[in-house]
């Protein structure tokens, strides 16, 4: 089978289209970055992304504009993200091993039910969840956001790990069983060390999802001292008074830095985990 070589003209057109599409997609982020360095009265009058001067007043004002310094909200989000990552890695890996390696009654129906839960939106279950957590006195604490992570409720990550574990040769399990290991030993000493790409992908996805979580955080976290970054950013907008767009853009840039750094340093493991899980 022969393949057609791209001509110089088609290559130039393809690159022009890709560069144009990239600029269109990244323009809102660049405009927000430029607006964070502009005075309030110039933000919406200038659609460009080039600066005539740089002012840091929005960053100074935004850091102390709310009830607490913005670092408090970064710390709250960091605590939730750390707990969510630990919870998902612990619970999803154990559940995935059970589905992939242990033959127990109703395994296939339970696995099918678990996959169906991926299609259930959070808006369907949030009301009964809120009633339960409210009766337990857990509203306005981190527990409603962290407890589900330790109960293997993220079915997508379980499915991702199940697919990865199925790609590990079962002969390794049999060899470990001959050496006297049970399921706990096989999981901890054989399967878990080989799951590093899947664990890394799960950790990165959980980090990004938890850092950006707004809906459930808005429902369960009502006190200013435990608000997370997305909820705090919403506080800059006021429908009954003047909104502070400049400080909000500045703090939005600050809140993007952890996500940018985790994706920058973890993209290798993210791509490896997804590609390995999907191909095998």
UniProtKB/TrEMBL annotation:
<feature type="transmembrane region" description="Helical">
    <location>
        <begin position="186"/>
        <end position="208"/>
    </location>
</feature>
<feature type="transmembrane region" description="Helical">
    <location>
        <begin position="245"/>
        <end position="265"/>
    </location>
</feature>
<keyword id="KW-0762">Sugar transport</keyword>
<comment type="similarity">
    <text>Belongs to the binding-protein-dependent transport system permease family.</text>
</comment>
<feature type="transmembrane region" description="Helical">
    <location>
        <begin position="145"/>
        <end position="165"/>
    </location>
</feature>
<dbReference type="Pfam" id="PF00528">
    <property type="entry name" value="BPD_transp_1"/>
</dbReference>
<feature type="transmembrane region" description="Helical">
    <location>
        <begin position="111"/>
        <end position="133"/>
    </location>
</feature>
<protein>
    <submittedName>
        <fullName>Multiple sugar transport system permease protein</fullName>
    </submittedName>
</protein>
<keyword id="KW-0472">Membrane</keyword>
<keyword id="KW-0812">Transmembrane</keyword>
<keyword id="KW-1003">Cell membrane</keyword>
<dbReference type="InterPro" id="IPR000515">
    <property type="entry name" value="MetI-like"/>
</dbReference>
<feature type="transmembrane region" description="Helical">
    <location>
        <begin position="79"/>
        <end position="99"/>
    </location>
</feature>
<dbReference type="GO" id="GO:0055085">
    <property type="term" value="P:transmembrane transport"/>
</dbReference>
<keyword id="KW-1133">Transmembrane helix</keyword>
<feature type="domain" description="ABC transmembrane type-1">
    <location>
        <begin position="74"/>
        <end position="266"/>
    </location>
</feature>
<feature type="transmembrane region" description="Helical">
    <location>
        <begin position="12"/>
        <end position="34"/>
    </location>
</feature>
<dbReference type="InterPro" id="IPR035906">
    <property type="entry name" value="MetI-like_sf"/>
</dbReference>
<dbReference type="GO" id="GO:0005886">
    <property type="term" value="C:plasma membrane"/>
</dbReference>
<keyword id="KW-0813">Transport</keyword>
């Amino acid at each position: 089978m022969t393949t057609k070589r791209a001509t110089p003209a088609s290559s130039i057109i393809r690159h022009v289209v890709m560069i144009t599409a990239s600029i269109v997609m990244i323009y809102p982020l660049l405009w927000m970055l430029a607006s964070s360095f502009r005075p309030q009265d110039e933000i919406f009058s200038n659609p460009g992304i080039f600066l005539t001067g740089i002012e840091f007043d929005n960053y100074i004002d935004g850091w102390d504009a709310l009830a607490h310094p913005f670092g408090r909200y970064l710390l709250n989000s960091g605590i939730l993200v750390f707990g969510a990552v630990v919870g998902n890695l612990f619970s999803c890996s154990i559940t995935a091993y059970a589905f992939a390696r242990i033959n127990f009654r109703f395994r296939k129906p339970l696995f099918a039910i678990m996959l169906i839960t991926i299609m259930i939106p959070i808006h369907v279950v949030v009301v009964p969840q809120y009633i339960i957590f409210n009766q337990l006195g857990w509203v306005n604490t981190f527990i409603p956001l962290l407890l589900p992570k330790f109960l293997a409720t993220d079915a997508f990550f379980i499915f991702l790990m199940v697919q990865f574990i199925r790609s590990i040769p079962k002969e390794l399990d049999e060899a470990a069983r001959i050496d006297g290991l049970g399921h706990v030993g096989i999981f901890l000493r054989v399967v878990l060390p080989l799951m590093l790409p899947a664990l890394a992908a799960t950790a990165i996805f959980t980090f990004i999802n938890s850092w950006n979580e707004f809906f459930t955080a808005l429902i369960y976290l009502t006190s200013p001292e435990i608000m997370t970054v997305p909820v705090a950013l919403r506080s800059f907008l006021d429908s009954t008074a003047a909104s502070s767009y400049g400080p909000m853009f500045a703090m939005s840039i600050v809140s993007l830095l952890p996500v940018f750094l985790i994706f920058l340093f973890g993209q290798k493991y993210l791509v490896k985990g997804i590609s390995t899980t999907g191909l095998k």
